[in-house]
Amino acid sequence: VQLQESGPGLVKPSQTLSLTCTVSGGSITTKFYYWSWSRRPPGKGLEWIGYIAYSGTTYYSPSLKSRTSISRDNAKRTVYLQMNSLKPEDTAVYYCAAKTTGRGSQTEADYDYWGQGTQVTVSS
Predict the structure, then answer these.
(1) Predicted pLDDT at 11
(2) Which residues of 75-90 are buried (b: 16+ CB within 10 A; e: fewer)?
(3) Which terminus of the chain has fewer CB atoms gathered within 10 Å of its CB, N or C?
């Protein structure tokens, strides 16, 4: 499985961020596959944002749930992240990852495949 994130790079405060994770080498509806988004702010550790399961069920970090949405397009093998009301502290490298066994997880080490990440800067 290979993952490639893409997005706008620079977003203004209060705007909405839309990121895309394009999947190759596997179907996003394969049973027990989970597709997550995480981010790493500058100088900080990885923060888990949420995931969408093979079934379509989503689960989010409580701290980000109110302004985050993860969705998918099965035919395009694409997973999306939408985050609204952006703030400068949302500046980070955003990653998508795939977990291919067991249950969904918030733990970085549980994920088998990672994209290279895409930089998002929130600034006016």
Answers:
(1) 97
(2) eebbbbbebeebeeeb
(3) C
- The pLDDT tens digits for 27-86 are 899 999 999 999 999 999 999 999 999 999 999 999 999 999 999 999 999 999 999 999
| Residue 95: partners with Cβ closer than 8 Å, 6 or more residues away | 5, 37, 38, 39, 40, 46, 114, 115, 117, 118
Taking alpha carbons only, the member of 49, 91, 78 closest to residue 66 is 49
Of 57, 55, 33, residue with least CA distance to 110: 33
**What torsion do the CA atoms of 104, 83, 75, 114 make, to the nearest 10 degrees?**
-50
Contact (CB, 8 A) for 93 and 118: yes
Tokens found for residue 47: 């923060």
Residue with tokens 């918030």: 106
CA distance 72 to 68: 14
- Quote the DSSP letter at residue 28: T
